[in-house]
């Protein structure tokens, strides 16, 4: 029994060790900017993974934006590249991401947390496995998915929105096209969020 307990502790420690801790990015300033416009997009490397960031000032209060982000069951109506968003548990969701032809769809399972303080609201997520969603051959599973939405109010009706994600696409997606894909994703996520806020 003692050996089993030790094994469980070791396995849990390994999982924690190799999980992407997006919160550590606050210490890093080494971002390569790939778009310097109203939506600022850049990327950096952490633990061998390309971590991407899109930032924009939106003319809406923090509460309105966070209400959309935490409504995970409605994601397919907001972020239009998502073809499925299914709650598996209170804090676990399964997401399918449509990719342009001829690439396979990507899917991932994430566990999320929500944090709120006077100065910001954070929705952070990281990949997990789940017995109800086995790996399917028609999709490429993003086993290292991780990221966060970070909202900081600059006034009563303006919020600085930052979306951070692991830009690894795995499978058959060519590395030379990563930068273009990151720009597309960053722009789409911000534009779709703005569209949802304007409805």
Write up this protein.
- This protein is of the alpha+beta class and 199 residues long.
- The chain has a single domain, classed as START domain (Alpha-D-Glucose-1,6-Bisphosphate, Chain A, domain 4), CATH 3.30.530.20.
- Helix content is 25%, strand content 39%.
- The protein has four helices and ten strands; from the N terminus they run αβββααβββββββα.
- The chain has helices at 2-18, 62-69, 75-78, 178-198, and strands at residues 32-36, 40-46, 49-58, 82-89, 92-97, 105-116, 121-127, 139-141, 146-155, 158-166.
- Strands 1, 2, 3, 4, 5, 6, 7, 8, 9 and 10 form a ten-stranded mixed sheet that branches.
- The longest helix has 21 residues, at 178-198.
- The radius of gyration is 17 Å and the shape is globular.
Brief summary:
The protein is α+β, with helices and mostly antiparallel strands and 199 residues long. The chain is built from 4 helices and 10 strands.
**CATH A-level architecture:** 2-Layer Sandwich
Structural class: alpha+beta
Total individual domains: 1
Count of DSSP H/I helices = 4
Shape type: globular
Q: Into which percentage range does the β-strand content fall?
A: 35-45%
CATH class: Alpha Beta
For this entry, what is the oligomeric state of its chains? single chain
The arrangement of helices and strands along the chain is: HEEEHHEEEEEEEH
Q: How far is it from the N-terminal to the C-terminal residue, by CA?
A: 57 Å
Low-confidence stretches: 4-18
Determine the CATH superfamily: START domain
CATH fold-level assignment: Alpha-D-Glucose-1,6-Bisphosphate, Chain A, domain 4
User: What value does the Rg take, in angstroms?
Assistant: 17 Å
Biggest β-sheet description: 10 strands, mixed
Number of strands: 10
Q: Provide mean pLDDT, rounded.
A: 89
Helix content: 25-40%
């Amino acid at each position: 029994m003692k050996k089993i307990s030790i094994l469980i502790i070791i396995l849990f420690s390994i999982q924690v060790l190799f999980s992407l801790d997006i919160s550590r990015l606050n210490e890093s300033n080494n971002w390569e900017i790939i778009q310097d416009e109203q939506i600022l997009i850049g990327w950096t490397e952490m633990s061998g993974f390309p971590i991407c960031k899109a930032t924009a000032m939106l003319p809406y209060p923090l509460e309105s934006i966070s209400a959309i982000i935490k409504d995970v069951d409605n994601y397919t109506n907001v972020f239009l590249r998502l073809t499925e968003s299914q709650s598996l548990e209170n804090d676990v969701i399964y997401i399918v991401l449509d990719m342009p032809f001829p690439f396979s769809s990507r899917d991932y399972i994430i566990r999320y947390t929500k944090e709120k303080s006077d100065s910001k609201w954070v929705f952070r997520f990281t990949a997990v496995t789940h017995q109800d969603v086995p790996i399917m051959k028609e999709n490429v599973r993003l086993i290292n998915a991780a990221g966060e939405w970070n909202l900081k109010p600059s006034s009563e009706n303006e919020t600085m929105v930052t979306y951070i994600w692991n830009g690894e696409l795995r499978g058959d997606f060519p590395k030379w096209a990563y930068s273009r894909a990151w720009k597309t994703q960053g722009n789409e996520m911000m534009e779709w969020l703005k569209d949802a806020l304007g409805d």
